Structures are given as structure tokens and as C-alpha cells.
Amino acid sequence: MVRLDLTGVDFVDSELVDFYDSKTIFFEPTNKLPETVTFKIWGADIERTAVQDEFIEVLDYPNISEALKKNGRLTVKGFSTLTFEEVVAGEIKISPYDKGEFVKLKNGTTQTFKREWNLDQIDRQCFCYHLNASIYFPYGACDLKLYTKGRVSFEFDPKNCINYLDYIGDKDRGETFWGYLKNKDICTSSLSYPDVDPRHVS
């Protein structure tokens, strides 16, 4: 496993990692936000600079060497872990999907669930980490902001790294974007491949 220190890194415009574009977080909104927040994420992207800066010993991982021969970043085809320390506040917005489409209210607007934690406690010492991703449950589009004063780390297995273009271009999307559905320790039978992407089910 490799651990990257992401303290003070702007996730929206990062030269190390990217959690956008159909990445799925396993964050569970709670009534009280804990001081340390840890959750898994499926399919995180790692910029090429992370390798060039020798965070990863490329020679130890032929899969990374092969992936770097092509254009584009690396993608972790598997689970990674994000950990936030000294969490002060947070906010989340979730727009759930139903068979690949947003759930709509009677007036035609998109259903959105919101939750906020301790926003009145944010001060200049806080750093905002913004993730725009998918969320496992309730399955949908997710906008998550965590405000912390401590360290943030990202841990992943280099053996799971493939080229980003191979990841998004794989015709077997069930093994890439939604490969996590096979992990029954984390995912229950509440979701299946036809639920998340019925357009690609024959």
C-alpha cells in the first residue's frame, strides 16, 4: 500500500489526485460528524506527477509502467481510503439516481438531500476539501465538503493502477465503474449492475 499526504491539497484542481468523473465514495452521513472521518472510494485518479515525484517505485509495478506508456493519468481500479483528521465541519448534497436517471419531484425538479455539520465553527485555520463524486448509498450524485485543521491522507494499492483511458473506455463497465458491487463485505444486495447503469445491460 502507498499513502499520499494530501494535507492542504485542493481536490478540485489537484496535481496529485482526482475524485471526479464517476468515482464512488462510501461515506455514510451521520447525525454527528466525527473528529476523524475515514471512508473508502472506488476508482480514484492519480496524476502522473505523483509517479514522477517518486511517490511510487514504478519499477516495482509493471502495471504502472505499462499504464504510463499511454497518455492520461492513472486510475485505481479498486478501493482506496481517504482519512481526514481534526474535522471541524462539513456539508453534503446528494441527488439520488433511479435506474441511471435523477429522481424527480412532482414539480419536475431534481430531488436533493442536504445535511450540514457545524458550519458556524469554520474559521481561517480550516481547509475545505471538496469532493464531487458519486455516493454508494443513497446511490446518486454527491457534493461533499469537509472542513479540517488536521492531516489528510490517501491510501491505495499500486497493483490496482491502470491507465485512465483504459478505465473509462472499458466496454465492460461493470468491472470498472461499478466493480465494487462484487465486494459483498461492503456492498449488500441493495444494488446490482442493472440498477446503476441499465443502458449498458443487454
TrEMBL record:
Superkingdom field: Bacteria
Protein name: Uncharacterized protein
Source organism (scientific name): Dawidia soli
